[in-house]
């Protein structure tokens, strides 16, 4: 996505983290699209309020620590800990009205440390979106 959701609530938790929370721009968007063409925003046949509640429940079901859930802004921020090394990764979810009806759910996952995440963030997003769509 060229307009990914932005981190806000977890920024204090990321203080001193080697990886910046700022998105890398169009070049990164192109690289991500090439590497993970299947990871796209989810469109749900739910109102934004319903989609928010489902996304929040899904994040909790996945064992993520919810840092902030701002229903009015349609933004959820959470932290997940990797199994093997115990690294913390952050997730931001944005829910907006979809064109016509329903909702669009954008998800971004970002490691705090490490040059390569070995596909961990992509796997996390895939798993979240699959669960979200199942309801």
What does this structure look like?
- The structure is a single chain.
- This protein is of the alpha+beta class and 135 residues long.
- It is built from three helices and five strands; from the N terminus they run H-E-H-E-E-E-E-H.
- Helix content is 29%, strand content 26%.
- Strands 1-5-4-3-2 form a five-stranded antiparallel sheet.
- The protein is globular.
Quickly describe the structure.
This protein has 135 residues and is α+β, with helices and mostly antiparallel strands. The chain has helices spanning 26-35, 48-61, 120-134; strands at residues 42-44, 65-70, 75-81, 88-97, 103-111.
Question: How would you sum up the global shape?
Answer: globular
Number of strands: 5
**Cα Rg:** 14 Å
Average pLDDT, rounded to a whole number, is: 86
